[in-house]
Every structure is written in structure tokens, then in C-alpha cells.
Design brief:
With 273 residues, the chain is an alpha/beta fold. Helix content is 38%, strand content 15%. Helix 7 packs across helix 11. The protein starts with a helix and ends in a 5-residue tail after the last helix.
């Protein structure tokens, strides 16, 4: 393992820029659930177990039509959980490391929790490929608008049901929903994420044009929904650099695999604040 750590240190040290790719495991050291397996999800949401619903079934836009009080209990609880969570020190270590690089860093994440922004990462250098719980849209997507959830407060009763008033579209009055790409979701308004994607592509193109050396550090991205892993692998391959994959259970498939959590990995790599 020490040899692998040393190789990761070398790649990071000689880089001019860092691409940080992150999945649900990134938040575990902050105390956030990663919903790994149905039992993990049911521990976090006993009501879902009572209803026999897996995460993929609960995280579906159909509930905003079928049972808005249940849908907003689930997403409202998560909204408040993410607001209350303090990002772990691994975020700060990564941010300080990024600031030592000529071209800084860019974050590509499937997480909807807004923890990178909360930790002080540049909003203009973050791509949230599945959207953000901190933004809303109309369930009818009547005007193609996305707006902030900053003023949203969801009261949830003991039966795990959200109380009225539920968030509404300011244009048509229909129910609002988080601007998150859910399972089986054909109504997601992707314009915010599309703009983030264009900024990421411009940043990568600039690195190529200037012959910059890129390091790709992937953290906590599992195989169940492989979007982050595939993105990491594709970009590392394109730039001809080894992928540094940090994952306590699924570090396989990368040239440099570290089987450890985020904070432990940052400390082992000698990246200290």
C-alpha cells in the first residue's frame, strides 16, 4: 500500500491542475448516509422499509404526482440534513491542495448535497451531474425555470409526511420539486447542469491547449450508478494520466487504487492543512 500511496503523491505533486470526481462516499466522513444497499437506505429511512420501497423506487418523480406529502418528506428531510451537515476536513485539505496548482481544480460530482460549495469550492468550477437539492423546478417544467430552495422549510410529521404548504411553482402554482435527476425522470430541467458541463469542457480544453499536466482524483464513487467512475476513467485516459481512485470497498479498476476513506486518504497522501 505504501508504494501505491507514493505513486499517488508523485502524480499529484507534478500536476498543474486537479480534477476531483466524487460520489456518495465523499460525504460519509461528514456523517452522511451513502444508501449503499437496501438495508443502508432503510436504516436511514424506516418509513421506506415499512412501505417496502428501495432507494431507486423512492427517488422517483412519480411520487410528486402520486403522494406529494411523502415525496417532500423524503426530499425535505434530505434538504435539511445537507444544510445542517458540516463538510469534513478532507474538503478543506483538497481545497488547499487545489490552490497550490496553477490551474486550480474542477469538481465533477453526482452528489446533490451542495457540500463542495459549502466547503468553499468555487461555484464556477463545480459540475453536479445529477443536479442539486438546493434548487427547485416546477413538476410540469412550465417555463423551464430553476430557482433557489434557500427559503424552503419542510415540516415533517411523525408519520413521515410533509405538511402544507408545500413548495409551489411561482409561475403556474403547480407543485415544485428538487432540481435533481431522479430514476425514471423525463421531466428534469437540465439547463443548470448543462451550463456547468460547458464550463468543465472549456476548462479541460484550456488545459489541453496549454499542455498542462492533469491529476484525476476520484473519491467515493461506487459501481451501482457508475457515472462518476466512467467520467473519471474517460478523462484520465484522454489526458494519458493514471486515475487515482479512493474508495474503501471498490478501489479496483484504476491504475492507483487506495482502499480507504476520504480523510484518511488525504492524510496518507501527505496533503495536510
Amino acid at each position: 500500500m505504501q508504494e501505491v500511496i507514493e505513486r499517488a503523491r508523485e502524480e499529484i505533486a507534478k500536476a498543474d491542475a486537479i480534477l476531483i470526481t466524487a460520489g456518495a462516499g465523499m460525504g460519509v466522513d461528514s456523517g452522511l448516509p451513502d444508501f449503499r444497499g437496501v438495508e443502508g437506505f432503510w436504516r436511514a429511512y424506516p418509513k421506506a422499509k415499512e412501505l417496502g420501497l428501495r432507494f431507486e423506487e423512492m427517488a422517483n418523480p412519480q411520487w410528486f404526482e402520486k403522494d406529494p406529502a411523502l415525496a417532500w418528506a423524503f426530499y425535505g428531510h434530505r434538504l435539511h440534513l445537507y444544510r445542517d451537515t458540516v463538510p469534513h476536513r478532507g474538503f478543506e485539505i483538497l481545497k488547499k491542495l487545489s490552490n497550490t496548482k496553477k490551474y486550480k481544480s474542477f469538481v465533477f460530482t453526482s452528489n446533490v448535497d451542495g457540500q463542495f460549495q459549502k466547503a468553499g469550492f468555487d461555484e464556477a468550477h463545480i459540475m453536479e451531474c445529477h443536479g442539486s437539492i438546493h434548487h427547485l423546478q416546477c413538476i410540469q417544467n412550465c417555463q423551464g425555470k430553476i430557482w433557489s430552495a434557500e427559503d424552503v422549510e419542510i415540516e415533517i410529521d411523525e408519520d413521515f409526511r410533509a405538511q402544507e404548504p408545500l413548495p409551489r411553482c411561482p409561475d403556474c402554482g403547480a407543485l415544485a420539486r428538487p432540481n435533481i435527476l431522479m430514476f425514471g425522470d423525463w421531466g428534469w430541467e437540465s439547463s443548470r447542469t448543462d451550463a456547468q458541463s460547458r464550463r468543465l469542457q472549456s476548462w479541460l480544453a484550456m488545459l489541453e491547449d496549454e499542455g498542462a499536466k492533469l491529476a484525476v482524483i476520484e473519491i467515493g464513487a461506487g459501481t451501482a450508478v457508475p457515472t462518476v467512475r466512467m467520467t473519471s476513467e474517460d478523462i484520465a485516459r484522454h489526458f494519458g494520466v493514471p486515475l487515482i481512485r479512493i474508495n474503501p470497498r471498490e478501489a479496483h479498476g484504476a491504475q492507483i487504487g487506495l482502499e480507504m476513506g476520504t480523510v484518511e486518504a488525504m492524510e496518507e497522501l501527505g496533503i495536510r492543512n
